Amino acid sequence: MAHTTPKPSKPRHHLTPGQKLSLTAALLVVLALCSTVFLDFRADRKDEDAFNADGTPNWPEAVSAYVSGTQDDYAAPFYNEGLAEVGRYSRGTHILLENWEPFVTESNNEYYHAFLDGTVGYIPCQNVTTDQAELLTETELYVRSTVHLMQDFDDMTIGPLVQQGTLLRVVGYDYFKDDGAVNMYYIKMGDQFGWIKSEYVVTNYSDAMTHWKEEEVYQASHVFRGDGFGGGDAGGLDYWPHEKGDFADEGNVMPEDVYAMYIPVTHLTTETVPLYLEAAKGTEINAFVVNLWDNSYLAKSYLAYDSPWLEKYGLLDKYEVINTVEECTQAIRLLQDAGYYVIGRMSVFQDAPLAQARPDWAITDLSGRPIQIGDYYWPSAFCRDLWELKVGFAVEAVDLFGLNEIQFDYVRFPDYLNNAEKNGNLDLKNTYGESRAQAVQRFLTYATDVLHAHNVYVACNMMGETSNYYVAPFGQYWPAVSDVVDVICGMPYPDSFSSFLVNREWIVPYKRPYYMMNQFGLAVHTRQSECASPAIVRTWMQTWNVGSYTYDSETVKREIVAVYDADEPGGYMLWYSDGSLSIIDKLREAVSIDYRELYDAALEDGLYLHEYMGLSTSDDQQTE
User: Which residues partner with 193 through β-bridges?
Assistant: First the structure.
């Protein structure tokens, strides 16, 4: 039997005191690291556990509350955990508080621990309430802009006129806007109640009695101009900014520049509209102006459809009705389905059938009999019942057809009214003792407020004369109208102007389309600078020949470019009253240009549009 020699065992080593100390330290480091990882994991688990599935903190004693403001500040600051401000939130914003225990700083400022907009932080205690009734801190207001109260905003009923500086007692409100301001206040004035938009009131009398912040513009321009032609004192109008429509979120997007064809009321049918769509193919046309309520033309006035609104007033049989509601709906839908922006045009204060049917709303003699001024009978622009009728029709059309924009035409008094007034036998139904320009601006203010509530833009046609600095005798004053509406549409047709001398040169306007339109645009550019919230400028273009002078594609192109050269882009509309489809074939080259794209490129190069396009501005034509 073999014997195995055992291997010698390794000698044992004993740790020195220093080695033991080092090993102990290393073990402590390892344990510390493990502990840190574990604590971090638990901290993460704690953070995860601290939020509910909907992203809100898991606070057992959480309180639902609202951000509140003060009478002069409609927003509150929000701070992070280090009390650094990270944002401001408008009153009415919903917040979540951890509990009612305030956090008190060393300087005795009190904050609630809160959750807002996905963030945990702190908000001052004075900016928090659980009672929505406490959000409204305003108790009394002063009228800054003379306007009408609205008795019932839903049905457009006009209440009393409240003058600048009037004290109003606040009773309630409808809702808070995104900036924390009230949209409309419900107020008491004496024993009367009504609604008023927040933009027309302020919290103290002194601010109410001031004018637009550009005081030097008001004094040097508007006040200085006075009333030279009977249309009204420019200084007596409102120049505070008016909120413009923006309905993109509601699906109503206005093109940056509108290039529009016109469809007369008699052509707004499912039979004719496809012909206009075919004519617009291959061009830059992106909109149509459809006529819904025509003014008296050759002793006739037309309606596009059998309006239930006018039937309610017993007025439908005073007009020649072209279509049913159903047929008109289908005709307009053809335009919309093809992707066009649709503008509904309607005549307002030139309406002979209405003046004759309702003499109590009309310009009459002192016996109450309508009188002709400039071959027409006119309803009075001072009459508030008439306002409600016209705006009600506009609202009906928007609701029925889904229009993008309402364009008001003849928002003015008649020409030659000064002559008619001279004999003293005239009743204008001027209940409030207003100037003509005040009536025009206040009508547009009322109409715009109502139509904006229906997510539609508002435009107003203006006589070419209104590019001048004065208040026109028929009551139109460019800055006062531009301040209110979304789009202002000049009608500076060259053949509507009389011949005149410039530096000993005899100017025949219809033979100088570039010159006339450019002068108009330059004047408009100045007028636009004289108001706080100028509208988009979109201009009507003459398309008809005058004598042997031809308004062909080159001529109309120069008309359009002339306005862009004056730095007033916004687009154009082609006016041809008979609706002739041949007009597009005649102007195809002019309407196949994207003027905005070229205008922007010209600006980058520091050029006028005509220079960038290499277009002559000469209006000379070889005529026989």
Answer: 188
DSSP labels, 531-582: SSSPPEE-EEEE-S-BTTB---HHHHHHHHHHHHHTT--SEEEEE-TT--TH
**Model's pTM, two decimal places?**
0.89
The two beta strands, 192-197 and 184-189, are antiparallel
Q: Kindly list the distances between the CA atom of residue 390 and the CA atoms of 1, 45, 136, 233, 266, in Å, as whole numbers in the listed order.
A: 129, 65, 35, 26, 20
Alpha helical stretches, state H, 218-363:
224-225, 273-280, 308-312, 325-337, 352-357
The number of beta carbons lying within 10 Å of the beta carbon of residue 294 is 24
The distance of Cα 468 from the centroid of its chain, to the nearest Å, equals 24
Task: Report in angstroms the alpha-carbon separations of 253 from 36, 247, 288.
Answer: 57, 6, 14
Phi/psi at 130 (5° precision): -100, -10
Q: What is the pLDDT of residues 444-494, one digit of tens each?
A: 999 999 999 999 999 999 999 999 999 999 999 999 999 999 999 999 999
Q: Which domains does the chain have, with CATH numbers?
A: 63-134 (2.30.30.40), 138-210 (2.30.30.40), 261-613 (3.20.20.80)
Q: What is the DSSP letter of 503?
A: T
Nearest alpha carbon to residue 490 among 456, 533, 528: 528
Q: Residue 333 gets which letter from DSSP? A: H
Q: Is the separation of the CB atoms in 232 and 382 below 8 Å?
A: no
Dihedral sign for Cα atoms in the order 311, 317, 319, 320: positive
Nearest to 489 by CA among 262, 231, 286, 228: 262
Confidence label for 70 from pLDDT (cuts 50, 70 and 90):
confident
Token digits of residue 9: 């065992």
